[in-house]
Amino acid sequence: MTLEQIKDWVSKRPTLADNLGIELTNLTPEYLEGRMPVDGRTHQPMGLLHGGASVALAETLGSIGAFSRLSDPTKQACVGLEINANHLKGVRDGHVIGRAAPLHVGRSTQVWEIRITHEETGALVCISRITMAVIDLPATAPRA
After folding, report:
1. CA 23 to centroid of chain Cα atoms
2. 59 is annotated as an active-site residue
3. I need a surface site. Which of 5, 26, 66, 140 has the fewest CB within 10 A?
């Protein structure tokens, strides 16, 4: 799949990523990359990037990355089984960049690592790992 095909598929339905301002920026054979603003939409009360927003970015990128690896997205889907995150550095403004890379792409599961960095400084803000289940879609399910 190309980045444009993925963006087209994602744009067909409103999502949490839209509300948080997440945008997909790059897709290579090695990773999927996206960026998210650090502003009122993604702040916690102390004015720092909310850990939940970082996890939402990580899950968005890991899920879409997993989707991009399906051999036939009209017959299969990926759903999250587990996600964890370590928040390493606070960020008050600007943008963060998430880069999701596959650690394991199997027939029934995928594991992705997502590194979130501050766009200006390059500092590591959060490291996350998500495990995805690859499931068969029922014949009546919405197709990609």
Report:
1. 10
2. yes
3. 140
User: All domains of the chain, ordered by start, with CATH?
Assistant: 3-136 (3.10.129.10)
Helices (H), 23-136: 51-68
Rounded to a whole number of angstroms, the distance between the first and last alpha carbons of the chain is 12
How many residues can be counted in the chain?
A: 144
Split the chain (144 residues) into runs of 10 and give each run's mean pLDDT.
87 91 96 98 97 98 96 93 98 98 97 98 98 92 61
Annotated catalytic residue within 23, 59, 119, 120: 59
Q: Token digits for 72?
A: 């036939």
Smallest CA-to-CA distance from 116 within 67, 61, 65, 45 is with 61
